[in-house]
Write a structure and sequence with these properties.
Helix content is about 35%, strand content about 20%. It is α/β, with parallel strands linked by helices and about 260 residues long.
Length: about 260
Amino acid sequence: MNKMQDTQTIKKQYQTAQHLETRISLHDKYSTNKQGFGTWIFENYKFYRGCKILELGCGTGEMWSGNINTIGSGSLLVLSDFSNGMLEEAKKNVGEHSNVVYKQIDIMNIPYNENEFDFVIANMMLYHVSNVRQAIKEVRRVLKSEGIFYCATFGENGINNFFNVTLAEQGIHIKTKGTFTLQNGVEILKKEFSSVQKLNYIDSFKITDINDLLDYLFSLSSIADVKDLDRNNLFNIFQQKKDDNGIIHIPKEYGMFIAKN
């Protein structure tokens, strides 16, 4: 799959919130760390009064629905996504506020001037970008010199690796690896930022309903690689991974970077 085809696949996937909500549901139902990844992310934000914040790839905006007060008085929050369908969902979840603006934006071409924002956020989306280096250059351009870039992502040893390994054992090879991970993120970010801190979120899955796991698998952007596979066959493959208590144990590897100069 070339970059143009990959981009079109991703755009189709995120036209609506359905696939994203499927993945969020698996985390909500089966995560062992009940703090929640979104709550943990917000605890690491250091906003202040009067700041300007841009979030790229805000998705459904659900993480902000109970956290608008964290941006402080006199501040401005721009929630953006390249999918208009996602922005509509974000508006429903977050609502109308005098200090919140909704805007359709492609991270590869951010329509703001240099040194515009105190904070830029890009959570769980840089691995979808065809040219990560160019995207981060754009982020750096619109950030003030003392600004901070927050970006959450996954690692190479979590659920995607579980899918790769489990199916490869059966001779089924799929692609579920991202281009921006906890393993290579520091190296990539350091090309534009002098200081990059990595924080790890400790969690795992204990999954009891294989159909939920299969729904997650088929919601991934790599669905082109699995759409023709027999769901019943996949069900039997994952059934073999259950322990004596009927649980599939899957590691989770998630975290975030804090980048600044």
